[in-house]
Amino acid sequence: MQFSLLHFQALQQPQPSPLTSTHTPIFLQKHITLCTTLNSIFFFHFHTQRYKKGAVQSLQLSSPQSSFTQGNMRPKSQALNLRLLLLGIFFSFVLLFALRSSLSSPQEDLSPISPTSLPKVSNTIKEGKAANCSPTCTKIPTSLAQALIHYTTSTITPQQTLKEISVTSKILVNKSPCNFLVFGLGHDSLMWRELNHGGRTIFLEEDEAWIEQIRQRFPKLESYHVMYDSKVNQADNLMEVGKGPECIGVGDIRHSTCQLALKGLPNEVYDIKWDLIMVDAPTGYYEEAPGRMAAIYTAGMMARNRKDGETDVFVHDVNRVVEDKFSRAFLCDGYMRKQTGRLRHFRIPSHRDGSAKPFCPL
């Protein structure tokens, strides 16, 4: 009996096991402890019965009635062992059912599965938020959204065709954000400003009423009113004037004495070094219209007067006589890059970079 009690006490001591480590969930630790206790109890009863059985057998051997006692004790001992076996099986099923219920409990599902895996999941979530919701990320610019909505819902098409627009847009792709000067304020103005997003785009318009109408719809467009003294029916005379020495000398156009020079523009128009200039105004389709003679000449002189670099100049409606002749004369065939539809593209270098250049390349 002493051996059994000592063995039972030893079994009650906490045994190191990987299943009861700090990494095991609390509910599993409780059930493991319960299993250990039940096993200890069964083990204690088992050894107790063996001890009793041994003692009885010893007494039977020493007693004259040993054969009778042995015959009577054997059925009782077998019945007791059978009861213990059935009791152990019953408790095993109860324990298994309780353990299974705990594993499937929603409350226990909320507990962490593995402490080492949690930081990885957390980092993944943080990285996803950083990639999608970073403070450095910006939404689509309001002006660009406005342009998309305008052209999607508008039934009015721009004055230039897709192929003509593509010529200028390719240059803007390489140069934007840049300085872009446009003679004319029309249905394509919002597009030009957004193609030069982040740069400065200025529009020069002859019609004050039209400027006010556009400003009410698109107040962020930078536009200025320009007055022209010329008329289309004066084009031939102005062509001869443009060949004079006062018109081919390079310098600040504000101080030019050439009749073709536009000297009433805002000062920032003269001070800015323009990367692109588009001539799509003023009106020039009838005799009394201002015509584009002065606009084409002024664009060419601004390009030549820049300190260094090159300026891309575009002239629209070159199918008309004035636009055709004046672009060739003052922007020069030697500087023309291409013609697409009614649009011509010229690339004019600085004439102030220290190298002596003729007005038009030979």
Automatic annotation (TrEMBL):
It is a single-pass membrane protein. The keyword Membrane applies. InterPro entries: IRX15/GXM/AGM (IPR006514). It is found in: Golgi apparatus membrane. The chain crosses the membrane at residues 80-99. Keywords: Membrane, Transmembrane, Transmembrane helix. Signal peptide: none annotated. This is Glucuronoxylan 4-O-methyltransferase 1. It comes from Vitis vinifera (Grape). The lineage of its organism: Eukaryota, Viridiplantae, Streptophyta, Embryophyta, Tracheophyta.
